Amino acid sequence: MVELFTVLSLTIIVAIVPGADLAVVIRNALVGGRTAGFMTALGIGLALVVHSAYAIAGIGLVVSQSILLFNTIKLIGAAYLIFLGITMYRGASRDMPAADPATAMPPLKALRWGFLTNATNPKATMFALSVFVQVTAPGTSLPVQIGYGAIMASGVFLWFVLVTLFFTQAKVRDTFFRAKLWIERSFGVLLTLFGIGIAATTSSTR
After folding, report:
1. How far apart (Å, rounded) are the C-alpha atoms in residues 28 and 17?
2. Cys-Cys crosslink for 78: which of 47, 116, 156, 195, Cβ 3.0 to 4.6 Å?
C-alpha cells in the first residue's frame, strides 16, 4: 500500500506541475479543439509507457549512470523543445483556426507532438526511474510494476484530458482568440525557454 500511495502521489505531482507537456496540451487544445488536446494527452501517456518499460527493464538505470548518455538525451530533448518553440512562434498569427479543428491541428500531428515532447523530456525519464528504482522494492513483482506504469501513464493522460476540457470551453477559447497571436507566441517562447533550461543543466558531472 505504501508503494501504491507513493506512485499515486508522484503521478499527481508530476502531472500538475507546469512544464512543456502542459504548454503543448493547452496550445493544441486551443488551436485544434478537443480532439487535438485528447490526442496530445494520449501521446504523452504513450511516452510514459515507454519510459516505464525501459525503467522496468533496467535500461533507464544504465542511462542515468552514464553522464554521456544522459547528457545526450537531455540535449536531444532540449533541441526538440527549442525547435517546437520556434515553430510555434513563427507559425503564430491572428488568423482564426479552420472551421474543421482537424484541419487546424490533425489528430496524428497532435499525437506526435505530445509523444515526442514527453519522450525526449529528461524529467520524465527521472520520474520513471524514481518510481521503479527508488520506490519499488526488490521483491515487487513484474505484474505489479507494470500496473504502476499503467497508473502513471493513465493518471497523467486523465489530467491532461481535464486540462483539455477546461481550455476548450467556449468562453476560454473566445478569450484566447482575442489575443491569439500573442498567446501563441508566448507558448513558443515558453517552450524555447524550457529547452534552453534543459540544455543549460547539461554538464560533465551529476
Report:
1. 18
2. 195
Kindly tell me the burial class for residue 57, based on how many C-beta atoms sit within 10 Å of its own C-beta (0-12, 13-18, 19 or more).
exposed
* Cβ neighbours for 178, distance < 8 A, ≥ 6 positions apart: none
Enter the C-alpha cell of residue 110. 497532435
The model carries a pTM of 0.77
Assess contact for 166 and 172: CB atoms under 8 A: yes
Going from N- to C-terminal start, the domains of the chain cover: 21-200
Categorise residue 95: left if φ over 0, alpha if ψ from -120 to 50, beta otherwise.
beta
For cell 525547435, what's the residue?
A: 83
Q: Which residue has the cell 500511495?
A: 5
Contact between 111 and 42 under an 8 Å Cβ cutoff? The reply is yes
**DSSP category for residue 100:** S
Residues 164-196 pLDDT 10s = 999 999 888 888 777 777 777 887 888 788 778
Q: What is the pLDDT of residues 144-167, one digit of tens each?
A: 888 989 999 999 999 999 999 999
